[in-house]
């Protein structure tokens, strides 16, 4: 390959060494990298802000639509016109969001159950963190019966 003695630094000095051999034996300080300021990351910051804004807008729109959907589903027969000769039951609970069951009708409180034939009904109110409530209510013709219940912890 090459003659070790020919390029021996101690014997001949560094002057006889070829340039590429001098580089092999040198220990240079590593080059100092430029420190970047926050403005060097400006495009990434802008993209991040746009992404966060888009996520927030999506979440707000989703929450608004979900709220409208849930509030309209609480009214079991809200689209129906009140039929003559029937009654209505309005149920409110504290806390709200309990499930009310009356015959085959199920709703979340606050709930309005319309077009009920006058008579005596058995109502069941359930909430995951509270005791089940069972009540008997009397529905009268062309009247609104209010049922307000404070739920108790088990």
What does this protein structure show overall?
The protein is α+β, with helices and mostly antiparallel strands and 154 residues long. Among the domains are: 39-74; 87-150, Sandwich (Immunoglobulin-like). Helix content is 29%, strand content 29%. It contains three helices and seven strands; from the N terminus they run H-H-H-E-E-E-E-E-E-E. The protein has helices spanning 9-12, 19-25, 42-74; strands spanning 87-94, 99-102, 105-108, 111-116, 119-126, 133-139, 144-150. A four-stranded antiparallel beta sheet has the order 3-2-5-6, with no helix packed on it. A three-stranded mixed beta sheet has the order 4-1-7, with no helix packed on it. A hairpin with a 2-residue loop joins strand 2 (99-102) and strand 3 (105-108). The radius of gyration is 40 Å and the shape is elongated. The N and C termini lie far apart (91 Å). The relative contact order is 0.12. The model is unreliable at 72-78 (pLDDT under 50).
Per CATH, which architecture of the domain at 87-150? Answer: Sandwich
Class computed from helices, strands and strand pairing: alpha+beta
CATH class of the domain at 87-150: Mainly Beta
Please identify which CATH superfamily of the domain at 87-150 we are dealing with.
Carboxypeptidase-like, regulatory domain
Helix content percent band: 25-40%
CATH topology of the domain at 87-150: Immunoglobulin-like
Radius of gyration: 40 Å
Largest sheet: 4 strands, antiparallel
N-to-C order of helices and strands: HHHEEEEEEE
Shape estimate: elongated
The low-confidence runs, each spanning 5 or more residues with pLDDT under 50, are 72-78
The whole-number mean of residue pLDDT values reads 77
- Counting DSSP H or I runs of 4 or more residues, the number of helices is 3
* Spatial strand arrangement across the major sheet: 3-2-5-6
Give the strand content: 25-35%
Number of strands: 7
